[in-house]
Amino acid sequence: MGLCHQLKDEVADCPPVVLLVARTADAWLASWSRADAISTHPVDPVELPRIVADVVRAA
User: Fold this and answer.
1) 20 conformational bin, left if phi > 0, alpha if psi -120 to 50, beta if neither
2) In this predicted model, what pLDDT tens digit does every residue of 8-33 receive, in sequence order?
């Protein structure tokens, strides 16, 4: 999450970032990092591809 925050600060045209978080309560920290999307771990094999596709479409 810290790396994502640093990338968003320092890279002019930063590519989209999807973060995996261990708990849904960590979503606030992912929003601090300015990630484009978040998903929870363990990975939901239906939800994660949908999230990634949405982020790619938006980019």
Assistant:
1) beta
2) 999 999 999 999 998 878 888 888 99
Task: Report residue 32 CA to chain centroid gap.
Answer: 11
Whole-prediction pTM value? 0.81
- Strand-pairing partners, residue 21, are 40
Cβ atoms of 54 and 37 within 8 Å: the answer is yes
The answer to whether 27 touches 21, Cβ cutoff 8 Å, is yes
Report yes or no: 19 and 1 within 8 Å, Cβ to Cβ.
yes
Return the residue matching tokens 């938006």: 58
Positive or negative torsion for Cα 41, 46, 47, 53: positive
Largest Cα–Cα distance in the chain?
33
